[in-house]
Amino acid sequence: MNISSSIIKMNVFILFMLLFCLSPLLGVAAICIFSPFLSQLERNIASVVVVFFSILFYATLQPFGDLAEYLHVYNNINNIDIFHYTRFGKGIEFFILVIMKVVYFLAEDNQFAFLITVYTLIFTLLIFVCKKMTKDFYLLLFFCVFF
């Protein structure tokens, strides 16, 4: 690496830090957009940062869609027989009930812990799928799906 490329990388790093100070969401967007120009190690570190801030962003929003319904079920998980709960169907949603039961037991009825757990699973799986599709542009692909 020569001196001019290290100066450019330092300027980009300063830009990322300024954007994170202004708005973490803008910082995530900047990292994802500039990710094709980063080295593999920098992309791996950036993916952890992007997933972390994505989880925090969505977990602090008012739950919507299916997740709002899941929170209603989560609040009553002790009164539900998870092996015979027909409202979710007979498919993979059974695992959501198992996750709810475990998180409820560990977090003692904390809804924020449930949201963090669900979004951690979703975004971790999403980043792995994007990384399998393309090694150089997976953060940019994650950015397109995220926004």
Secondary-structure map with pairings?
Blueprint: H1 3-22, H2 24-34, H3 40-59, H4 66-75, H5 93-107, H6 111-133, H7 138-146
Helix pairs in contact: 1-2, 2-3, 2-7, 3-6, 5-6, 6-7
Relevant terms:
single chain; 147 residues; mainly alpha; 7 helices; 0% strand; elongated
What does this structure look like?
The radius of gyration is 19 Å and the shape is elongated. The model has no long low-confidence stretch (mean pLDDT 80). The longest helix is centred in the C-terminal third of the chain and has 23 residues. With 147 residues, it is mostly helical.
Strand coverage percent: under 5%
Radius of gyration: 19 Å
Shape summary: elongated
* Quaternary class: single chain
Summarize the structure.
The chain has 147 residues and is an all-alpha fold. The chain has helices at residues 3-22, 24-34, 40-59, 66-75, 93-107, 111-133, 138-146.
